[in-house]
Write a structure and sequence with these properties.
This protein is of the alpha/beta class. It has 3 helices and 7 strands; from the N terminus they run ββαβββαβαβ. The radius of gyration is 30 Å and the shape is elongated.
């Protein structure tokens, strides 16, 4: 840890950084191993343009518009509360075989309400939920 410098015979102290580098490498490996797993969101599929032989699969699309904090509107019907959405979707899903619904919301609305509507739709059994943009 000491070294002779010049010809006067004095020792000059130097720091040995090799142990510090070893400790840092071990810490990096430990943090890489115990790193928490990445959270996964909903699987998203990028829409593909239809081919000429494909027909639109939604003759009567179901559009759920989230208005305000606790109200939704199904297509052009009267608004219902989010609490009643489950029963209304079950009634519509039972009578008509909708394979997907479209969800849209107002611009200034908290996205938490949109996620709540998606969660209710998934609970009803609707597997494909599409988000509409303006």
């Amino acid at each position: 840890m000491a070294m002779l410098v010049g010809g006067n015979g004095r020792l000059k102290a130097e720091m040995n950084v090799t142990p510090m580098i070893d400790v840092l490498l071990v810490l990096i490996i430990i943090f890489m191993v115990i790193l928490p797993t990445q959270s996964e969101g909903l699987k998203a599929v990028i829409p593909q343009p239809p081919t000429p032989e494909q027909k639109p699969s939604f003759a009567n699309p179901l559009v759920v518009t989230v208005i305000g904090d606790s109200m939704v509107q199904l297509n052009q019907e009267a608004p219902v509360s989010i609490a009643d959405l489950d029963q209304r979707l079950r009634a519509l899903y039972k009578s008509a075989a909708h394979h997907a619904i479209f969800v849209r919301a107002e611009n200034d609305l908290n996205f938490e309400r949109v996620v709540e509507v998606i969660d209710i739709a998934r609970g009803v059994g609707i597997e494909k939920v599409a988000l509409m943009t303006q």
